[in-house]
C-alpha cells in the first residue's frame, strides 16, 4: 500500500493542492474583508465629516440670517401710519416707488414674478401689503444688474420686479413702509433687504396670496 506521505502519491498531491487553494482563498477573503472594512470606515468618516461641515454651514447661514433680520439696513428709509384702503382711482403717493398707502383691491402677482413693463402702482402696493419685496429700476441701471436682480427675484417667492422710469435712483428695493437705494446687484443690502422684509414683520397681511392677482 502506498504511503499518504509519499510525494509520489497522486491522492496526497491532490489534497496538498486543494489545501493550498483553500489557504489562498481564505487569504483572499481576509484581504477582501479588510478592504471592505477599511472602505466602510472611510465612508463613515467622510459622512461624519461632511455632515459636520453641512451642519456648520447651516448654523452659519442661520446666524447670518438672524443678524440680517435684526440689523438695520444702511440707508433705509421708513414710513409709518400708512393707510390701507381699497380704492378704484389713481393714488398720489408721496414716495416713488410707493411703499404703502391706499391701493387697488387687486394685487400684482408677486410669486417670483419679473415684469419688463411698468406696473400700475396701486396694484403693486397691494403686493407689498401681502409681504412682497418689489425691485425696481430705471434706464440708468446696467443690464448686468437688472439681469442679476431678475435672477434673484425669480428664485424668491413673495417678490416682484419691474421698471419704474421716473424713480430717482437706478436700483431701488421696496417693502411695505421700507425702501432703500442700492449701488448694484452685488450690494450686500440686497440680500439683507430680502432676508429681512420678504414676509417680514412689517407685513400688514402676512401669508396673504401672491398669486391669483394681475399678471400683466
UniProtKB/TrEMBL annotation:
<keyword id="KW-0472">Membrane</keyword>
<dbReference type="Pfam" id="PF11303">
    <property type="entry name" value="DUF3105"/>
</dbReference>
<dbReference type="InterPro" id="IPR021454">
    <property type="entry name" value="DUF3105"/>
</dbReference>
<keyword id="KW-0812">Transmembrane</keyword>
<protein>
    <recommendedName>
        <fullName>DUF3105 domain-containing protein</fullName>
    </recommendedName>
</protein>
<feature type="region of interest" description="Disordered">
    <location>
        <begin position="1"/>
        <end position="31"/>
    </location>
</feature>
<feature type="compositionally biased region" description="Low complexity">
    <location>
        <begin position="1"/>
        <end position="13"/>
    </location>
</feature>
<feature type="compositionally biased region" description="Basic and acidic residues">
    <location>
        <begin position="16"/>
        <end position="28"/>
    </location>
</feature>
<feature type="transmembrane region" description="Helical">
    <location>
        <begin position="34"/>
        <end position="56"/>
    </location>
</feature>
<keyword id="KW-1133">Transmembrane helix</keyword>
Amino acid at each position: 500500500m502506498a504511503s499518504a506521505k509519499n510525494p509520489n502519491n497522486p491522492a496526497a498531491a491532490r489534497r496538498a493542492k486543494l489545501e493550498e487553494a483553500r489557504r489562498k482563498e481564505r487569504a483572499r477573503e481576509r484581504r477582501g474583508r479588510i478592504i471592505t472594512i477599511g472602505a466602510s470606515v472611510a465612508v463613515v468618516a467622510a459622512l461624519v465629516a461632511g455632515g459636520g461641515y453641512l451642519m456648520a454651514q447651516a448654523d452659519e447661514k442661520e446666524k447670518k440670517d438672524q443678524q440680517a433680520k435684526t440689523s438695520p439696513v444702511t440707508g433705509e428709509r421708513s414710513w409709518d401710519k400708512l393707510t390701507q384702503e381699497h380704492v378704484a382711482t389713481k393714488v398720489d403717493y408721496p414716495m416713488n416707488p410707493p411703499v404703502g398707502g391706499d391701493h387697488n383691491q387687486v394685487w400684482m402677482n408677486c410669486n417670483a414674478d419679473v415684469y419688463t413693463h411698468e406696473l400700475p402702482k396701486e396694484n403693486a402696493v397691494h403686493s407689498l401689503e401681502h409681504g412682497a419685496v418689489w425691485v425696481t429700476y430705471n434706464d440708468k441701471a446696467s443690464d448686468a444688474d437688472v439681469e442679476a436682480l431678475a435672477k434673484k427675484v425669480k428664485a424668491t417667492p413673495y417678490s416682484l420686479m419691474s421698471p419704474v422710469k421716473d424713480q430717482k435712483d437706478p436700483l431701488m428695493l421696496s417693502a411695505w413702509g421700507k425702501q432703500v437705494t442700492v449701488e448694484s446687484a452685488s450690494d450686500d443690502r440686497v440680500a439683507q433687504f430680502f432676508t429681512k422684509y420678504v414676509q417680514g414683520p412689517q407685513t400688514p397681511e402676512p401669508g396673504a396670496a401672491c398669486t391669483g392677482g394681475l399678471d400683466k
